Amino acid sequence: MENFDLVELINKVQDKHGDDSFEITNVTIFDALPQDKLIKIIYDEGDLTKNFVKFSTDLLSGKFGNHFLEEIIKGYAEVLKTRKNLFKESYRNKPSSIKEILPSVFIHTSMSKILMESLIVDLVTKARLSIKFFNMETTKKDEKLLETALTYKSVTEFSKKSPREFSEAQRLGLLGKIQIHMERKS
């Protein structure tokens, strides 16, 4: 009989996450840079804004490494500043939407849920991480994306030739599963 941790399995099966929660792992970069440690963090602070703030804090503080920090900072665009007064006046007029996440590092959170999710996915892509949102019904989507992905020889080819499907697979946390299936196929 295979050795396993029953408590861990029960927690995994019964684990319930909020609608706006998501899990970030460094599986992709862990495969490329084996000296890094495998990281898996679930952001379930109660709402998407709090999850975004916590994730941004972790991302910019180097919790996932500093490999692509310049590219990540570019991904934030106008959402990230070093002083509150550098934000547009409309954001400054809503002080609750500007959060100091690290000393002299501010983000604004005044955006729609769709825009925030899109920004999170973009930042995850730039950091070469993987994300899985827990509020998605995924079974049929998973199967269709897996089917599409397996028509390619590699995840890189999948990302270049089917960018929309690749982005959706990444958003749903399927890249690790897709990569394993590709390796078995070859």
What would you say about this model in short?
The chain has helices spanning 6-14, 27-32, 48-60, 69-76, 89-92, 113-126, 139-149, 155-161, 163-171, 175-185, and strands at residues 22-25, 40-43, 80-81, 98-102, 105-108, 130-133. With 186 residues, the chain is α+β, with helices and mostly antiparallel strands. It folds into two domains: 17-135, no CATH class; 137-186, no CATH class.
Helix and strand composition category? alpha+beta
Overall tally of structural domains? 2
Give Rg in angstroms. Answer: 18 Å
Could you state the order of secondary-structure elements as H and E?
HEHEHHEHEEHEHHHH
Total of DSSP H or I helical runs spanning 4+ residues: 10
Strand content: 5-15%
Amino- and carboxy-terminal Cα gap = 30 Å
Overall shape: it is globular
Helix content: 40-55%
Kindly describe this structure.
Helix 4 runs antiparallel to helix 6 (113-126) and helix 7 crosses helix 9. The protein is built from ten helices and six strands, in the order αβαβααβαββαβαααα. The chain has helices at 6-14, 27-32, 48-60, 69-76, 89-92, 113-126, 139-149, 155-161, 163-171, 175-185, and strands spanning 22-25, 40-43, 80-81, 98-102, 105-108, 130-133. The protein has a three-stranded antiparallel β-sheet with strand order 2-1-6, covered by helices on one side. The protein is an alpha+beta fold and 186 residues long. The protein starts with 5 loop residues before the first helix and ends with a helix. 49% of the residues lie in helices and 12% in strands. The longest helix has 14 residues, at 113-126. It has two domains: 17-135, no CATH class; 137-186, no CATH class.
